[in-house]
Design brief:
Elements: E1 3-6, H1 16-28, E2 37-42, E3 55-59, H2 68-76, E4 81-86, E5 96-103, H3 107-110, H4 117-124, H5 127-133, E6 136-139, H6 142-152, E7 159-161, H7 175-185, E8 191-198, H8 204-216, E9 223-229, H9 234-242, E10 249-253, H10 257-266, E11 267-272, H11 281-289, E12 293-296, H12 301-305, E13 310-312, H13 317-329, H14 331-345, H15 350-365
Parallel strand pairs: 1-2, 1-4, 2-3, 4-5, 5-6, 6-7, 8-9, 8-11, 9-10, 11-12, 12-13
Length: 380
């Protein structure tokens, strides 16, 4: 049995989707017989996973190329995969007997103006074909499954929801460990934190405005924007300049994961006022660190956060300001959110996600391929 897993995106954009693929590879490996899983990297990959029991290969076809589905299919054809899992929406046109795709969100259909023209063409022009051709469809959330049904007419029974998980590096840290990292970045505890790609759907101008209004109310807070530049983000800088918030705002690009854990630990809260999220992994990472999330009450975010955070209207900055002030001033509320978040985060594990993904593979192939079930032993 030969199962291919597409990990090419990491060589270009080591963000949420590529982290998903690599975490899945790590946790699928012990569930499958040695040699079953084949990891397909791009030829430019510099940090392949140090896994035993898997086979690896390199592909020349770059992700998000307009000829990708045909070129990648041609590269895969000699490898004779029984199943190929495309972790970034679009499967190859051929090259495997069965194809499974993961659809992380349908942001490009709901908010097409929030994408570059190239990104719109890549996803919009292919998603109907992708969900029609796929033998199995995985969605990160129930919200995305409903979107697939409503916007693309995909029958509910064709989609399996597999929730993501946070890396175990995200955990409560000692005050000393946290402070050592904050000092390197020139930060003081109690800032408002955003984590993610800087792009329009993240609603960062509203977050900047909310922090400015806190200052105007006599409650100044540093704003930390961690992640990487995406596209169409000039309005963020314009809002910071207009509200004279440059001295309070810290942009930190491509944060090492260990430092990111400390940034969560040092924050008053994580803010995610996104217009749309297919899952919202930073909210889960924050909960796992003991940091309350303030998130938009839309799409998947309420599904992930539950009662471990505060929900806001992303179109109403005042609801953001109110949520920030409640967490800053109500110690009982904050302590409750911290404890609830830690407990809720423990229900999301990568081993569970891998086992549920394996179940999709077995259903698509019509046969059992996994090893006997083993206890979780607390893995994330």
């Amino acid at each position: 049995m030969r199962i291919g897993l597409d990990l090419r995106l990491h060589a270009y954009a080591p963000g949420g989707i590529s982290r998903y693929g690599r975490a899945l590879a790590r946790h699928l490996t012990p569930l499958l017989p040695a040699g079953t899983l084949h990891l397909v990297y791009h030829r430019k990959e510099q940090t392949p996973l140090p896994l035993t029991g898997v086979r690896t290969g390199r592909a020349w076809t770059p992700p998000h190329n307009r000829f990708e589905r045909w070129a990648l299919g041609a590269e895969l054809w000699p490898r004779r995969f029984e199943l190929f899992h495309s972790t970034d929406f679009i499967p190859p046109a051929w090259g495997a007997q069965r194809r499974v795709i993961t659809v992380h969100d349908l942001n490009f259909l709901y908010y097409p103006d929030y994408l570059t023209a190239d990104a719109r063409r890549y996803y919009n022009d292919q998603i109907q074909w992708a969900v029609r051709e796929a033998d199995g469809i995985i969605a990160d959330s129930e919200a995305t499954r409903k979107d697939l049904e409503a916007r693309l007419g995909v029958k509910r029974e064709r989609v399996t929801v597999v929730h993501l998980a946070a890396d175990p590096v995200f955990r409560p840290l000692s005050s000393e460990a946290t402070q050592a990292v904050l000092a390197r970045y020139g930060l003081e505890r109690g800032y408002v934190l955003f984590v993610g790609t800087w792009e329009p759907r993240k609603n960062l101008p509203a977050l900047v405005e909310a922090v400015a209004r806190l200052r105007d109310l006599g409650e100044p807070r540093q704003l930390v924007i961690a992640g990487r530049p995406g596209w169409l983000y000039d309005e963020i800088y314009e809002r910071i300049a207009a509200r004279r918030l440059a001295d309070q705002t810290h942009f930190i690009e491509r944060v090492p994961v260990e430092d990111l854990a400390a940034l969560y630990n040092g924050a008053l809260l994580l803010a995610m006022p996104s217009f749309y999220e297919g899952f919202g992994l930073p909210a889960l990472e924050a909960m796992q660190c003991g940091t309350p999330p303030v998130v938009a009450g839309r799409a998947s975010l309420p599904e992930v956060v539950g009662d471990a955070g505060l929900l806001v209207d992303p179109d109403d900055v005042d609801t953001l300001v109110s949520a920030f002030r409640r967490i800053a001033t109500d110690a009982t509320l904050r302590a409750s959110l911290v404890q609830t978040g830690l407990e809720r985060a423990r229900t999301f594990t990568w081993r569970k996600a891998a086992q549920e993904t394996l179940t999709v593979y077995e259903r698509v192939l019509g046969q059992r391929i996994g090893l006997s079930s083993q206890p979780e032993r607390g893995e994330s």
